[in-house]
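Request: How about a record?
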Amino acid sequence: MGSRKIKYSSNLFLIILIMIGILAVVNYISSRHFKRIDLTEGKIYSISNSTKKTLNNLTDIVNIKVYFSENLPPQLATLDRQVKDILDEYRAYSNDKLKIEFIDPASDPGLEQRMRFIGIPKVQLNIFQKDQAQLTNVYLGMVVLYEDKKETIPVIQDTKNLEYELTSSIIKAIRKEPKTVAFLISESEEEFNGKTTKVRGDLSKQYTITTINLKDEEKIPDSVNTLIVTGPENTTERTQYEIDQFLMKGGKAIFLIDTVKLDQKNMLQTEPVNHQMDDMLKHYGIKVNNDLALDKYSANVGFNRGFFSFRIPYPYWPKAINQNMSQENPIVNKLSSITFPWTSSIELLEGRLKVLDAQGTVLAKTSSHGWINKGNFNLDPGQKFQTPPSDMKHIPLTAIISGKFKSFFENKSIPSKTSEAKKEVKNDQGKEEMIKEGPLTHILVAGNSRMITDSYYQSRENGVFFLNSVDWLTMGEDLIGIRSREKTDYPIMATESPQRATIRYLNIFGVSVILIIFGLIKAYIHRKRKIAWLDN
């Protein structure tokens, strides 16, 4: 009996040791191969493939220091845990190249004094304790350190955009050469900066931002990676030449072309814009039409009339939804919608693209109920928008062309600078050599520049589209996969009047009819059973 107990105890002890060994092996493997099941549509609760790729490509140690106060108020009680969970996932995919440290600045008075120089402010919050409102100061910042570079996330209020901010900080820190994005503008720099604070603020998180005045006709610096031609007016041949040569060197470009200008005092009055870019863009295989695109299914826009405000669907603001976007191009394939305020239609010149052996892709278009308006534009939101059904079709709103383009000035002489530009910039034209054919590059074109101004810049629509465009042209797909994952707009599918009537009547009478049919079937079955029982 005693030997049996000893044998039983030995077997139990051996089984326990085996189980502990299995758990240790599983724990070791899981720490090396992180896996999370995320059933959300955009996988918004797990890090994206773009982040995983960035972490897998780390070749040296990156340090992340999280400066969080230990005693956070109740409304931020879970933030600390959420940040730790995200960073644990980052660490798991970094192949031990990510070193993470959590620090409470209040624990070291000397460090707390240095926090302002680190770039992390003290955040003042209202808390309620014992039925009283009190003020408390906390730290909620993070610093990414690589070699002698430092990127700071001053305040983390939630984890909604943390992945994008953290991954972009890592990319910016480990990048050897900074990327530069230049705006080519027709107005003064002060005026342009005053109306584009939002977009420039978003871009400056990742790029060096500069502006070039179109009227100066100056050479586009070699340091510029992506050129954004914004609302050009009266573009001279010399400026066209500088843009052309930038493209011939392999530079990427975004053309935001206005064919219609809105009056500053009365936004419903228009005048045509002489941008002088038609011939050059046609040479590359794309055209911005002198019209305005409309769509029966459009964005809701707010207007004021005297003392009254109202919000209505406004066809002059076509809203492209995901099903009307290119599903192959990462700039737009994960976006839910993009609104284009007072925009011109885009046309791909297939014949010219074929000659150039270039590819053209429409990135976004109206619904099948879109149409165009030419000539005199009546922008009054109170009018009755009517167009013959035969004129309705998908209208392209933005497109991208890719190829090895030939210079627009291939068979022309190099244009001279105007007398005004010569006064501002020393003329070194005699040293110039024209580049007649360039390497593979990309050109994105949209029919308005107002979408990036503060009045129309919508961070979850136009903003994401524009930032994705800049990212894809400048860096590839490193950040697009993060910013585009979370869809915030789920538009209802458009239906015609007969379909709406059918759906309405089904909702009203459908359930009642189904219940009646179910009751009749149930009564029939019960009757059959009763008859069968009586027969027996």
The chain has four domains: 1-33, 49-167, 178-289+342-364+395-483, 498-536. The longest helix spans residues 497-535. The CA atoms of residues 292 and 344 lie 4 Å apart. The chain has a mean pLDDT of 85.
